[in-house]
Amino acid sequence: MFEKALSGSRRYWTLVFILLALVGAGFFFYLRQLSDGLSITGMGRDVSWGFYISQFTFLVGVAASAVMVVLPYYLHDFRAFGKITILGEFLAISAVSMCVLFIFVDMGQPFRIFNVFLHPSPNSMMFWDTVVLIGYLLLNLFIGWATLGAERKGVAPPAWSRPLIYISIPWAVSIHTVTAFLYAGIPGRHLWLTAIMAARFLASAFASGPALLILLCMIVRRYTRFDPGREPIQALGKIVAYAMTINVFFIALEFFTAYYSGIPSHSHSLEYLFFGLEGHGSLAPFMWTSMGLAALALTLLINPSTRHNERWLATGAAAVFFSTWLDKGLGLVVGGFIPSPFESITEYSPTVPELMISLGVWAIGFLILTLLYKITVAVREEA
Amino acid sequence: MRDKMKIFAGAAIFLAVALFPLWYVRTTGKASIVPEPKIVNAGKECVNAKEYMREYHMTMLNEWRDEVVREGRRTPIVIAGVEYQKSLSDACMKCHANKSDFCDVCHNYLGVSPTCWDCHNSPKEPKHEIR
Amino acid sequence: MKYDKNYELSRREFIRKAALLGLSVGGSKTLMEVVFGDDILAASTDENPATVRWAMVVDMTKCSRREDCSDCMAVCHRTHNVPAISNRRHEIKWIWREPFVNAFPELKEGRLRKDLYGAGFIVLCNHCDNPPCVRVCPTRATWRRQDGIVMMDMHRCIGCRYCMAACPYGSRSFNWMDPRKILDEKAINQDYPTRTKGVVEKCDFCAERIDRGMLPVCVEACKEKALVFGNLSDAGSPVSGLLAGRFAIRRKPELGTRPEVYYIV
To answer: Which of A204, B77, C159, C201 could disulfide-link A247, Cβ–Cβ 3.0 to 4.6 Å?
Structure first.
């Protein structure tokens, strides 16, 4: 089926080449990072994780969201999702690939990455995150390829794909829970030391992933002859509405505990993020934008009349995606390091090389997505 | 398979050409360049025999690394009454004191770049004329 | 169809079997390491008291507390080839001064004894008994020795900086660039390696000296004898003696890390 990605319209090839150009630019900057070290990024001794890890954290959520289409269809026979489970699974493959790449570009000694497997450390959540992410990638690769291949041949998917699909459902939850555990078990970072970290992660994942899937379905409908249909997009809209409501509720819960308890260390990071601390507040505009977008999203998505209108639905979905991207990516990861263990403030902003490398990784992800979706659409179009 | 003979003949010629460096040196015993590492502080006995070291010095160094760093076992090795620390810089480089004339000769010949000296110190070398 | 008519393996079946073989070969090494690998959490317990438990007492009543006194830091950084980087974001430090209110932020509320407001406390890795940095390392490039020292293996570190996120004391530094570009070639201590870019480093209680029965260089260098190092498991050691008689505090003890650097204030 690979050959289906090698023939397409002029528009398709333009997209592919633009993405390849972005990948090339990112790669060029990455070579600089390999030779000069991570000093070319904006990270430092106090904020030792930055844009790369924030993108990784956000994308694990997007990857986990495939379960939101797989579960209703395979466990509850929700027929409407029949045509788009493959789109969810391929989105998961693209997202997990980006996760792995963001980890790779963040490492100081990336060529030693096999040490994680040569010297496995079950005590470390990062070890388990590597295991479950690679497992999830393989699961979706096998399931997606087998189901699409079977569809193309006009036969039922192979019997072994069923148990794998059932496994992928709790596995999807596990990848984001383990990623949350990366943060939630660290004693010294008070923004992260919350029992609801995994719950927050899952809520924002189930909001942001399906939101992106809505937009991707609309794009596929617009530019190809495959129409996912109105019903699945509406169902996804409801899922995003509920998930985003819970996500915003959880954020409010964090504020309550931080401020009502009165314990200074519990609220310092939130204070810095939203209001600024000791004259430093460079992230506040981003956090309030995130909240504004969240409010807009909830208004559009909870209200049935706007949700039923696909233009407003698309706006709401985009608002959810960017709101969660700002809050989970920038806010959560960077905010955890500010103030430092010495309660001093060192601010962080990504550098141009850092952003170019990140853009390159996003481009690789969208390239994978484009190729996989092209194959899917080609199979559907010839049927 | 009408072209069987042509395919086998082609494959045989390819293998002969591709493996030329191996079978030529094996049969005639002549290599165009033989690396000649020079030992500066000769006269002391090495921690292991030359043939063993040629093949296993990296394995031995890794074992030393794990023993010293990870297990804290720093007991020196005693060869002919002389103590050697289990250390690249404090043992090996004290005798093989000229990295360019000893270590680099074979490493460059084989095209390997070990990263040991990114961290571990090598003795200062006197400048010598370009050969 | 697994087999074609000549009873040879189909391409698909071959790839499947090859992948399984590769995975089982690779996986078995991993499994062996998990089962037989080094034990990282060998902390001492009351049922199994360690015979050696290294600790340090920082007697701030003896320390000069002055910004211009940097004997311990200078000798440590010189001995261990720690580069002096002017950009604060990239700086590497194993032992340094922090104002009391920064070293002990939970204690800064309210009214303090006057002399503490300007005091520069000596801070370093606390070599915790229950170190979160060790817990999170995905390769066990950092681990806790039986005698309490939290070690770094620069060969194994992949530079993920998870340990830096996990340390509640900010004790760890990362090599954001090649330190040899900063270090003065002539001033490098030939008896100790440098590091390379992309690995984390921190104080290791001069493990290579401890193992030879010597004291850490900072302890030896302090003119006021403010740094005391010894074996807590030995009731007769200087640290045991000091702590038995004087009140000492530790940084963030409520986090359960059980730090082994004590401060006499």
So the answer is: A204
Taking CB atoms and an 8 Å cutoff, what residues of chain C touch B67? none
Q: Does C102 touch chain A (CB under 8 A)?
A: yes
Taking every pair of Cα atoms in chain C, the longest distance, rounded to a whole number of angstroms, is: 92
Task: In whole angstroms, give the CA distance from residue B97 to residue A270.
Answer: 57
Parent domain of B51: 39-131
Residues sharing a CB contact under 8 Å with residue C206, sequence separation 6 or more, in sequence order: C79, C214, C215, C216, C217, C218
Residues in chain C with CB shorter than 8 Å from the CB of B65 are 155
Which of B83-97, C12-26, C122-136 is most confident?
C122-136
- Amino acid A322 reads F
Which residue type occupies C221? Answer: A
B18/B51 same-domain check: no
In whole angstroms, give the CA distance from residue A192 to residue A186. Answer: 7
C38 → closest Cβ in B70, B74, B123: B70
Note whether A244 and A301 are within 8 A (CB).
yes
CB contact under 8 A, A336 and C165: yes
Q: Do A341 and C167 touch (CB under 8 A)?
A: yes
Domain A2-382: give its CATH architecture: Up-down Bundle (1.20)
Cα separation, A250 vs A282, in Å, equals 24
* Averaged pLDDT, C225-232: 96
Q: Are residues B113 and B53 in the same domain?
A: yes
Task: Report the range of poorest mean pLDDT among A128-132, B12-16, B122-126.
Answer: B122-126
Domains contained in chain B, number: 2
Classify C263 as helix, strand or coil: strand
**A110 → chain C, closest CA residue:** C158
Question: Cβ–Cβ of C170/A46 closer than 8 Å?
Answer: yes
Q: Looking at chain C, which residue has its C-alpha nearest residue B115? A: C196
- From chain C residues 235-264, the ones with a CB under 8 A of any chain A CB are 252, 255-257
Backbone angles phi and psi of C54, in degrees to 5:
-70, 140
Whether residues B115 and B67 fall in one domain: yes
Chain B neighbours, 3+ Cβ pairs < 8 A: C
pLDDT average, residue stretch C149-153: 96
B&C contacts, CB < 8 Å:
34
Mean pLDDT, residues A59-64 taken together: 95
Q: Where are the domains of chain A?
A: 2-382
Distance, in Å, from the CA atom of A380 to the CA atom of B25, rounded to the nearest integer, reads: 59
Q: Which chain C residues are within 8 Å of B70, Cβ to Cβ?
A: 38, 143, 151, 153
Considering only CB atoms, which chain A residues are within 8 Å of C37?
A: 119-120
Output the pTM of the full model.
Answer: 0.90
Burial (CB count <10 Å: 0-12, 13-18, 19+), residue A114: exposed
Q: Is the dihedral of CA C31, C32, C35, C40 positive or negative?
A: negative
pLDDT reported for residue A290: 97
CB-nearest to B119 from C143, C151, C195 is: C195
- The whole-angstrom separation of Cα A210 and Cα A138 is 21
Of A91, A365, A329, nearest in space to A216 by CA: A91
Q: Computed from CA positions of residues A34, A35, A39, A40, in that sequence, does the dihedral angle turn out positive or negative?
A: negative
Question: Does B90 sit within 8 Å of C155, measured CB to CB?
Answer: no
Q: Does C24 lie at the interface with A, CB-CB under 8 angstroms?
A: no
Q: pLDDT for A295-335, tens place per residue?
A: 999 999 999 999 999 999 999 999 999 999 999 989 999 99
Residue of C nearest to A190 (CA): C168
Tokens of A132: 């479950």
Q: What are the structural domains of chain C?
A: 38-264 (3.30.70.20)
pLDDT given at position B131: 44
Residue of C nearest to A340 (CA): C170
C-beta atoms of C198 and A109 within 8 A: yes
How many angstroms separate the CA of residue C114 from the nearest CA in chain B?
44
Which residue would you say has higher pLDDT here, A266 or B96?
Answer: A266
